[in-house]
Amino acid sequence: MPFKKFDKILVINSGSSSLKFMLFSMSTETMMAKGLVERIGTPNANLVYQRDGEPKMTQGISAENHGKALAMACKMLADPELGVIKSLKEVNAIGHRVVHGAEEFTDSVAITEDVKTGIKTCSDLAPLHNPANLDGIVACETVFPNVPNVAVFDTAFHQSMPKHAYMYAIPQKYYDEYGIRKYGFHGTSHKFVAQAAADYLKRPLEDLNLITCHLGNGSSSAAIQGGKVLDTTMGLTPLPGVIMGTRCGDIDPAIIFFLARKGMTIDEIDNVLNKQSGLMGVNGIGSGDMRDTVNAAAQGKAAAENALNMFGHRAALYIGGYHTLLGGADAIIFTGGIGENSFPGRKAILTRLEAIGCKIDEAKNKSVFGTLGVVSTEASKIPAIVIPTNEELMIARETFRLLAATLKK
Ligand code: ADP
Q1: CA dist., res. 172 & res. 209, Å (int)
Q2: Could you read off the pLDDT of 119-131 as tens digits, one per residue?
Q3: The pLDDT of residue 407
């Protein structure tokens, strides 16, 4: 019954100048078509569209705002020749990625006027993302009147963190006044791979201690105890934690005052730490891409080799710490562009985990590329498993779960 009512779920990830969409059929969890409108609000907006298993197509469109962008995307989805549905009436529900839900949203939620106000309130903590996510929601309300919308927050899964993990040791008044605390991000991905790990291990998630490493351009790790987050590496913002493509991860916070006193403005420092640091800052080739870093290291570039070691060192440091906090881990999960595809990236971490009973299997590690697979030796006490993430499917699942529950009431 719920599948009949909520079979076709559209997933929307709306950015400031882009709108990504994916249409799922939930009875089989298949992605029917996906696409992206980019450069919204400029004269050279583009629609990229792809049906499942078919080549991508790109066309120039006019999309002065998110509403127009969505209308063009929907026209394609229902196109008699190129589309995958006969009419937009087939879309039963829409799931939206929303970056920041602060403490207000601890779970996915059906969107109402109050929820939209709440998302707006959280914009203070994600000024670039939340307003763009709201634009996508408003566009859907216009194009799909009477279709339920659900918000799925990047931060929600991490809301289960205990207070001693999420508080910063700065005066309490900053938490009280501004909500300064650790929130964590990539929650949808951590939740997806945690559930997938439980399925793979054939054990209930409630019984497992997992360390999930989402390693992409942006990276974060999480300690997950019985399906609840115990700690995660990102914080108030996505800047701290492990070393990322262009973000520095953890640094001594006093570096910021030091640079400010040298004459840099806050915006300049912000730009350096977010956009010019991480692998890009240290690998000597000016690229934040792991593939470029690995290639440069293979050519004997010492700075790139050091960047790879820094990446592995920092990630292993968190895995070791989380292993302790969890009282032992049942599995270490790798996901994200690097976690799924870069065997040298994984190797840089795995070779540092022997002390906790996780030993790399070099051959297996080399052979796993974009698929589920174990990359540790059989004798390892803790297996390291690569699990491809699927944040869009998770958003569709969350949307379905929430709406199906309303039918039971
Ligand atoms: P984002 O955080 O933007 O979603 P991704 O998850 O796509 O980023 O990850 C991007 C990173 O993954 C880059 O450092 C890239 O080098 C790495 N990566 C992506 N695909 C591959 C691949 N096929 N082989 C090796 N590394 C890859």
Answers
A1: 31
A2: 999 998 998 899 9
A3: 80
Q: Report the distance separating Cα 193 and Cα 247, nearest Å.
A: 23
Residue among 135, 154, 289, 330 flagged as catalytic: 154
Whether residue 218 has its Cβ less than 6 Å from ligand 1:
yes
Give, for 209, the enclosing helix (H) or strand (E): strand 209-215
Q: Which long-range contacts (CB under 8 A, 24 or more apart) does 74-77 make?
A: 74/143, 76/33, 76/35, 76/47, 76/49, 77/10, 77/21, 77/23, 77/33
Neighbours of 367 (CB within 10 A): 12
Structure tokens at 15: 């950015």
Q: Determine whether 154 is an active site residue.
A: yes
Are 72 and 40 spatial neighbours (Cβ–Cβ below 8 Å)?
Answer: no
With a cut of 90, say whether residue 1 has pLDDT above it: no
23 lines ligand 1 (CB under 6 A): no
What is the CB-side half-sphere exposure of residue 25 using CA atoms within 13 A? Answer: 10
- The three-state secondary structure class of 333 is strand
Q: How far apart are CA 188 and CA 194, in angstroms?
A: 10
287 and 273 Cβ atoms separated by less than 8 Å: no
Tokens for 129? Answer: 């993302």
Name the token pair of 360: 């790399």
- In one-letter notation, the amino acid at residue 263 is G
Residue 220 carries which side chain, given as an amino acid letter?
A: S
Amino acid identity for residue 3 in this structure: F
Cβ–ligand 1 distance for 12 under 6 Å, the answer no
